[in-house]
Amino acid sequence: MNLQLTDEQIMMRRMVKKFAEEEVKPAVAQMEAEDRFPAELIRKMGVLGLMGVPIPEEHGGSGMDYTSYIIAIHELSKVSATLGVILSVHTSVGTNPILTFGNDTQKRYYLPRLASGEFLGAFALTEPGAGSDAASLRTKAKKDGDDYILNGSKMFITNGGEADTYITFARTGDEQGAKGVSAFIVEKDTPGLTAGKPERKMGLHGSSTVELNFDQCRVPASQMLGAEGDGFKVAMANLNAGRIGIAAQALGIAEASLEHATAYTQEREQFGKPIAAHQGVSFKLADMATEVEAARLLVYQAAALIESGSPGNKEVSMAKLHASRTATQAAIEAVQLYGGYGYTEDYPVERFFRDAKVTEIYEGTSEIQHKVIAKSLME
Ligand code: CAA
């Protein structure tokens, strides 16, 4: 498999790097301090075509390949993992389900709006009692004439409260488990849909995470995405590709941790020389670099597989499992190498540490990635 970047992909990397350095970096301190959703940066990302990188041009997107999209998340996340997750959720699970399962009317209306950034997308699968066991969800959608009435609640919804559309999963049949789940596109102002207060999180400040409540929420039957009862497939198929987005976010955090630690340990002197000149420190950096490189290869291999049309379940889960573990470990090491300074807010490594952990939790915990990989080994 050729993992060399094409000229177009290199240009994408250059463009996102420039945007991240010039526009995002100066905004990070305020995002951290005020935990404020970065609406203005998202608007600018829309202007640059970043909100619809892999969406075909005929639907208003940039019409680029999946690898270019992964490059965008990777580069953004090196500076702000918050923007990385906003973009990943918006694209992979907020927009792609409409591209892959939407009918012509849904595609014509929603895709140009989402791909341009006029609309922000979100994905409402998780519930207070249904996390890893997503098929045990209990939100109900009951047919009433030409509508469905939704009742239930969703938890930990990224972009929640800020998004214009929610790909929402609810039970339309009496069957238990994955069968009997259907997907709907629910618009933010639909009566009966309310968003709770943003969760106060350990990291990813600025990214909104809320509970959603559906109380007699009336949604036209024409908003159903895919066929009745196909909802779990809609969720799983898009989560699969979506997990590479989170893997790329984790890769960005890991690489940033390595780069900062490498620079700092060459400046910081103890015992009469830069601490990087001590073997114990330089070997730590060598280990970090090796893990980061392995994560990079897994992430870009998974993206190339998705681009080639393969479901790539095993490779995607391996990429997410390894990249998220690497992000957490690299950030922990970076804090350690900065010593006392690493534990203060004066340096970015404590933020990397707080932002990294959730990549091992959302869009399928590491335990779920193990389950997916193990299942594919037995097949
Ligand atoms: N593509 C298409 N269909 C798929 C699929 C895929 N990748 N994976 C499973 N399916 C289908 C199966 O074929 C099966 O259908 P049939 O019965 O018709 O064959 C059906 O879905 C059920 O499959 P399983 O029996 O394998 O399902 P399961 O209940 O055992 O669950 C699981 C499998 C992998 C554990 C799944 O529940 C899972 O991924 N859990 C984690 C949930 C998750 O990732 N949540 C993230 C929430 S979103 C989020 O975090 C976004 C954010 O805000 C950052």
TrEMBL record:
Acyl-CoA oxidase/dehydrogenase middle domain segment(s): 122-217
Pfam families: Acyl-CoA_dh_1 (PF00441), Acyl-CoA_dh_M (PF02770), Acyl-CoA_dh_N (PF02771)
Entry cofactors: FAD
Domain Acyl-CoA dehydrogenase/oxidase C-terminal: 229-377
InterPro entries linked: Acyl-CoA_DH_CS, Acyl-CoA_Oxase/DH_mid-dom, Acyl-CoA_Oxase/DH_mid-dom_sf, AcylCo_DH-like_C, AcylCo_DH/oxidase_C, AcylCoA_DH/ox_N, AcylCoA_DH/ox_N_sf, AcylCoA_DH/oxidase_NM_dom_sf
Gene3D superfamilies to which the protein is assigned, alphabetical: Acyl-CoA dehydrogenase/oxidase, N-terminal domain, Butyryl-CoA Dehydrogenase, subunit A, domain 2, Butyryl-CoA Dehydrogenase, subunit A, domain 3
Record PROSITE patterns: ACYL_COA_DH_1, ACYL_COA_DH_2
Keywords from the UniProt entry: FAD, Flavoprotein, Oxidoreductase
Residue ranges of domain Acyl-CoA dehydrogenase/oxidase N-terminal in the record: 6-118
Coiled-coil stretches noted in the UniProt entry, renumbered to this chain: none
Recorded family membership: Belongs to the acyl-CoA dehydrogenase family.
Identification of the protein by name: Acyl-CoA dehydrogenase
Organism encoding this protein: Lentibacillus kimchii
Taxonomic placement: Bacteria, Bacillati, Bacillota, Bacilli, Bacillales
